[in-house]
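Troubleshooting: if your tokenizer reports a length mismatch, compare your output against this known-good record of 308 residues.
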Amino acid sequence: MSSENKKQPALKKITRGLTVGSVITGSTFFHGPPVLALGLTKLFKKSKKVDETNIKITNSWLTVNNWLIDHVLPNTKWDITVDADLELSMNGRYLMACNHQSWVDTTVNQYFGLTRMPLTRFFTKWELIFIPFVGQAFKILGFPMMKRHSKEQIAKNPELKYRDMEEARKSCEQLLSQPFTLLNYLEGTRFTPEKHQQQKSPYTNLLKPKAGGLALALSILGDKIDALVDMTIVYPDGAPGYGEFWLGEVPRIAVNLRKINIPDWVLGGNYEDDPKYREKFQTWVDELWTEKDQLITQMKAQYASADK
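Known-good structure output:
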């Protein structure tokens, strides 16, 4: 290959990076100030109209991102499967569990969900409120923000444990005024081979699930949601970095969504204070995670077979 031909791919990558960076930056500066400005009005008076307007503005920002994915990253092939028994609506209320491998996972969720599900939120730490723009946006858009005390602090003052639970309950109940998708990465951190080995995880493709967050969400919202959704994301060519994705270096992304049936005994249990319920709930989540692990193995095998 001549030096001139070698330069062409590099030039395309630079051009793509500049295009993506410029459009996302411009879109953020265009959409961000109205969200923050309208959010400030909620300090004086709560308004459903303001909330709806802010969601529309946020969805407009996501629409720009999705346009970039479709038109500037055309080499990325998407394989999205939704099980037949899962009916999704923009007016629904959903809890969603997902495996976690990369910062790209959230973009994948937004790409899929923009026209199929309500705006996705997830639990965030209260401390993020002090990050300029980002923390305020999370608060304004109704992301559940939790003040969590350490085990040491709770040991000294057990009352803090119930205060944290009450904060979580209030945060979740605020979502009920509108359609929502509440996302939970059960692994609690991104999957890496090193973490997998350190945990001695019994799963081939997943870290051990942390059941507490899902138990909390189900105890507060479980009888008010339309479905518990399991999203599985597979990158057949390896988990990418965020920069790799936006430079168009991710050839394929596979997504599967299925509905998880919630047993009657799950609702109304006390995960924090009832050891028997906690053990039974953890066993249930482990079973779900085993099914998910097998699904990932199957999805990877399908792509490996297609590559031969």
